[in-house]
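Q: I'm writing up a methods section and want to include an example of the input and output format. Could you take the sequence below and give the corresponding predicted structure tokens, formatted cleanly so I can copy it straight into the document?
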Amino acid sequence: MIRTGIGYDLHRLVSGRPLLLGGVHIPFDKGEDGHSDGDVLLHALTDALLGAAGLGDIGEFFPPGDPRWKDADSAQLLASAWAAIKDKGWQLENIDAVVALEKPKFLPWREAVRASIAGILGVDTDQVFVKAKTGEGCGAVGRSEAVAVWATCLLSR
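A: Here is the clean output for your methods example:
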């Protein structure tokens, strides 16, 4: 059996927070505003994987109103969800994601992000791909007010 999943997340960019993408700190003067550490890429991946496995979504697993998840490490959240998915017999075929971010440029960080995600999931780096697009100056992403991510995955068992 094979299943696909899709995930999406968007966070405002604010001063005084680190910019985290895929578990990698990217130097910038703004970061994601969120209940946890705000890593939009890991949140979207978590949703994609949970959806493909039919296990719910990130909000069910880690409710944002629960103080236990305040400033939580999104890598640990993803690892926990992935353990539940693997317990159901699923294995990862691949992940593909798009990060919508006006600045900073993502390309210099791509390989570190791919390696980080692969490490969290315990898979090969070639099973993970991430690319970025700008907002072309349009909307909240284009004005550097937000970062958004779309992620898809393929699971099999």
